[in-house]
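PROTEIN DESIGN WORKSHEET
SECTION A - STRUCTURE
LENGTH: 204
TOKENS:
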């Protein structure tokens, strides 16, 4: 289970892409393929930490994240029933903190796990919702293993496709977040959850 959850955490960040006008006409699968090409290109660049070039690359990654991952939908689904109880100000704060956590973890994890080969299997589009089935080959305990990954996407107002959940071997990123958030809110409180998330930011 720990191996699977680590993979879910990693694959959450394999779905971002730089935005462009022609991306609106892309299919969900084409958007994901372009995403991986873009990410590998950015993250394989060897730059010295603290330099203007590194800052520029980080900014490109940040823009890419916000262009392709539907943070508002992810946050709404992950917070579940607690979302409706929050004020507009609280919702904005929650989305911003969650976005920052994902962005920071994204760079850290992907730089250490660039050796992957994603195989695109099928695409199912129903109206403004889409599911893209893929698989990735990994080595576990010295043996090759194939893990299936499902990307859940939705078409937003500008016509582009955005990812709001990733399911790996039946483990959903959204459901995993919701379980953790519910547990903290139930045992403590919503403010305690946000405080814990902010403390986590200080360690990344």
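SECTION B - SEQUENCE
RESIDUE ASSIGNMENT:
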């Amino acid at each position: 289970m720990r191996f699977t959850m680590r993979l879910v955490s990693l694959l959450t960040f394999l779905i971002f892409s730089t935005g462009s006008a022609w991306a609106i006409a892309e299919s969900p699968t084409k958007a994901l393929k372009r995403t991986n090409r873009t990410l590998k290109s950015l993250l394989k660049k060897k730059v010295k930490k603290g330099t203007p070039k590194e800052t520029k690359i980080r900014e490109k990654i940040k823009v890419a994240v916000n262009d392709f991952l539907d943070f508002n939908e992810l946050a709404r689904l992950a917070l579940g029933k607690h979302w409706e109880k929050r004020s507009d100000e609280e919702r904005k704060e929650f989305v911003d903190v969650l976005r920052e956590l994902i962005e920071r973890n994204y760079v850290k994890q992907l730089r250490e796990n660039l050796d992957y080969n994603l195989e695109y299997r099928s695409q199912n589009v129903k109206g403004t919702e889409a599911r893209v089935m893929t698989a990735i080959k990994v080595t576990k305990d010295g043996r090759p293993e194939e893990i299936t990954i499902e990307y859940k996407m939705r078409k937003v107002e500008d016509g582009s496709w955005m990812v709001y959940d990733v399911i790996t071997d039946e483990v959903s990123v959204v459901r995993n977040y919701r379980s953790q958030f519910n547990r903290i809110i139930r045992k403590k409180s919503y403010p305690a959850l946000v405080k814990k998330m902010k403390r986590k930011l200080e360690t990344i």
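SECTION C - NOTES
The chain has one domain: 2-201.
The first strand starts at residue 118 and ends at 126.
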